[in-house]
Amino acid sequence: MLVPMITVEGLTKTYGGYRAVDNVSFECRPGAVTGFLGPNGAGKSTTMRIIAGLTPPTSGQTRVSGVRYQDIPNPGTQVGVLLDASAQHAGRTGREILALSAATMGLPMSRVDEMLEVVSLSKSESKRRVRNYSLGMRQRLGIANALLGDPKILILDEPANGLDPAGIHWMRSLLREYANRGGTVLLSSHLLHEIEVIADEIIVIGQGRIVAQGTKAELLRTAGTFVKAGDASALANALTAAGISAVASGDGGLRTEAEPEEVGKAAAIAGVALVELRPAEGAGLEEMFLELTADTQREVVTPEGAQA
Amino acid sequence: MSTTAVVKIDTARPGVPLGRLVKVELRKMFDTRSGFWLMMSIGIIAVIATVSVILFFPNDDLSYSTFGTAVGFPMALLLPVVAILSVTGEWSQRTGLITFTLAPHRAQVILSKVIAAVIVGVVSMLLAFAIGALGNVVGSALNGVDPVWDMEVGVLFTIILANILGMLVGFMLGVLIRNSAGAIVAYVVYSFLLPGIFGVLAELQDWFKDIQPWVDFGDAQTPLFDNMPSGEEWAQIGTSGLIWLAIPLAFGVWSVLRSEVK
Question: What does the pLDDT look like over B221-230, one tens digit per residue?
Fold first, then answer.
């Protein structure tokens, strides 16, 4: 059993009467990418700032490899942190920002050039002032800054934001390799797909509370069947007639606890042509996430399809 | 990650030494265009002030103190701004997110900023005095008279001290307000409006006139500019400085240590 590299225990942070983080507990293992998933304002960034010692918690505690973040000597060489790629002095060049971090950590300046290469920022780009950087370039700079001290843990808040598809692909392989070499990664995103693709462990947070957590396999394993027909209401009627209860799921489909075979038979008896029939893998997670998002984003997200 | 299966972080290695932080803070003062020109302006304005004295001042009255005053005045304005920006930038530009994750002991970061600011202050003042001295030599030579050196070395030191106190005031406002524009406005109010209010108050109220040197920091510092302060005057700098610098500075640092960096 490996010691958890990040431990969060009963963490709560309140601002006046508002609970931004509400009794959150989780652990991050070495060699795994832990995805921190939740809509904007769910408490991801606050939790990450508390882990990095920037925000004092109201109650509860966080530990990095068993010690408080503040007690890590020269922490940049152990934990790489990217909390907000836009939080940079606009008047500094990208290179200078890395040089300042390298100087603080006591690293040779050659490390700056190495990292610029790793994140594919060219020599001329690195000499431009950050004011003239796109968000994607700032993210690359921020990732370079986090990697600078050759840390064993990476804490990245929304690192995919602003990256183009090629950049996102690059970042995924980078983090995958990093974890495969034994590194610990905690990264946040408000996009389910993003987390699904990269994470080994998933923590879902909404309104400050953890609503689900486990390995990706556990969370995606949903019992039952996903079924979709051209005529959604005919399908709903067919299932009702067969005594199968189902709920709306995804884009015009239905999810039911029944086995695919049963569902297929019921549709065949009623003569309903199916578009999709498969085990409902991941559908539960998606429904849960949509629900969370609907609560906080003030947009009405009603899954299409009839309630059966 | 150079090895596989690392299960613990290294807590035995040395921390970030103060000297390294001071170097980084000094570097931060020069590495932006605005910071660079703020620093350059200290030298440039000292030269402009010196040349102006030579051109426009009555030739008979030229002496080193004239140059010293002309060069010193802009310093008293610019140096506190240097101190203010070194603190507030971490919040206004949000660079604190990186600074305080790499060096989580904030008191150490604040101390390194104070040291860096004092280094800049002392070097700037020595430079200003040197430019003034050069002006005195050149100005006198142009007028065919012997240069008049009417400032004692001791006063040069107390003037430097006064400017360092001014920088610490800027620093204090920086840690209290943590916003560049707000802290600079507060400094202007503090150093130009407050003395006026004290002056009016002293005119109107006799009881205040008696205690003014003890509680008016600006008033208490005036001896620093013309002679070595007496024991009583040092004490007045102490009491007024306690009220207007030490206590608010302590409160500001305390709030920085407890505050949220975001």
Answer: 988 987 788 9
